[in-house]
Amino acid sequence: MVNEALQILVVDDDEVDRGVVLRALRQGPGALHVTAVATLQKAREALERAAYHCAILDHNLPDGDGLGLIRELSDERDMAVLMLTGHGGDELGLQAVALGAQEFIQKDSLSDGISLARMVRFAVARKRAGGAASPLPPASRPGAQLGSYVLEEELGSGGMATVYKARHTALGRHFALKLMQLNTPILRQRLRVEGQVQSALRHPNLVPVVDAFEDGGAVALVMELIDGPSLDTWLERTQPSEGDSLAVFLQLLDGVSYIHEQGFIHRDLKPANILLQLSGDRWRPRITDFGLAKSLIGGGGAPGITRSNVAMGTPAYMAPEQIQSAKDADQRSDIYALGCILYEMICRRPAYRDARALDMMNAVTVGAHPSASTLVPELAPHIAAAIARAMSVHPEERFTDCAAFREALTSDRPLAPRPPRRLDAAIRLEDRYVPTEPISVRPSAAQPTRGGATLAMLGAMLAFAGVLIAWAYW
Question: Is 14 a catalytic residue?
Answer without folding.
Answer: no
